[in-house]
From TrEMBL:
Organism: Pullulanibacillus pueri
Family: Belongs to the ornithine cyclodeaminase/mu-crystallin family.
Protein name: Ornithine cyclodeaminase
GO cellular component, one term: cytoplasm
Any one Pfam family match given in the protein's UniProt record, by short name: OCD_Mu_crystall
Any one GO MF annotation of this record: oxidoreductase activity
Coiled-coil blocks: none
GO BP annotations, alphabetical order: carboxylic acid metabolic process
């Protein structure tokens, strides 16, 4: 019998703190060659794209695959977890799983790359992923103020009103993105933009940038100068970045050196590469979203569900 977990089951079982620990564990397993990760593959029919990502963890003897569609209405995701014998252990709805693990990955990068006393954030974007980005960053830094910008002013106001009671930091709606970015310790872009919304000329010394929203090779949220001014560039997968990170690929096309100085987040976590080395350095994390991040969190949720009796058994 396989276990079925709904979106509500997942959010009930998984806190951001737990997700951060699970993602860190999975990435360390990957760095230590005890996990495999298959980059995202896509097929398209009309305006619907099917995305497939798979991974395995040797020590846990599990395999998993996330299948999700993206449409003009938004994503629709499911995660399948298998045993070493090929038995389906769990089918879980995975929209919230994906949102939480994406935030958790940003939190890890922010913890390792931003200044230890960072307390101001500029959040660019108020869409599907923005809420968990905000909450994740607040888990790893003592944030006092978060400036929120989006193309639509009504979205900014609604977002801040909805989330103010859920974080201790002051949420400040802003209309001038340039002023919002200048002097900010942490800048996170989480938009559906196809052209840059963040310009390198706005970025102050010592800032940390999380570029999260884009994973298509011909689109980007940050301009080439934002990549160029970064003293340290980290991504969750160099291999995947070369295939789908427009933020980096388009910068390379415009003459910015990237591939000879970029490092994997997983290697940073185990200490085999260096991150920030001084207070005035600018650091950049390019998030792609990896299957190893999904499986590590999904397996944690599955174990917790089994121990607490959450979910429904289904006969297949």
């Amino acid at each position: 019998m396989a276990l079925y977990l709904s979106e509500n089951d997942v959010t009930t079982l998984l806190s951001m703190e737990e997700a951060i620990k699970a993602v860190e564990y999975g990435l360390k397993e990957f760095a230590n060659k005890r996990a495999q990760n298959q980059p995202r593959n896509r097929v398209v029919v009309g305006s619907t794209t099917l995305n497939v990502m798979s991974s395995s963890m040797t020590e846990q003897k599990i395999l998993g695959v996330k299948n999700y569609t993206t449409t003009p209405k938004g994503p629709n995701a499911y995660f399948l977890l298998f045993s070493e014998e090929g038995e389906l252990l769990c089918l879980m709805e995975a929209d919230e799983l994906g949102r939480i693990r994406t935030g958790a990955t940003t939190a890890l990068a922010t913890k390792w790359l931003s200044k230890a006393d960072a307390n101001t954030v500029t959040l660019i974007g108020t869409g599907f992923q923005a809420e968990t980005q905000l909450k994740a960053i607040c888990e790893v830094r003592n944030i006092e103020q978060i400036k929120v910008w989006s193309r639509r002013q009504e979205s900014i106001q609604s977002f801040c009103k909805q989330l103010q009671s859920e974080v201790q930091a002051e949420l400040l709606p802003v209309s001038d993105i340039e002023k919002a970015v200048q002097g900010s310790d942490i800048i996170t872009t989480v938009t559906s933009a196809t052209e840059p919304v963040l310009k390198g000329e706005w970025i102050s010394e010592g800032a940390h940038i999380n570029a999260v929203g884009n994973n298509r090779i011909n689109e980007r949220e940050i301009d080439s100068r934002a990549v160029k001014v970064a003293d340290v560039i980290i991504t969750d997968s160099i291999e995947q970045s070369k295939n789908e990170s427009g933020d980096l690929v388009l910068a390379v096309a415009e003459g910015v050196e990237v591939w000879n100085r970029i490092k994997n987040l997983s290697d940073l976590l185990i200490g085999s590469v260096k991150g920030r080395e001084s207070e005035d350095q600018v650091t950049l994390f390019k998030s792609n979203g990896l299957a190893i991040e999904d499986i590590s969190v999904a397996y944690y949720v599955y174990k917790k569900a089994m121990n607490s009796g959450v979910g429904k058994e289904m006969k297949i």
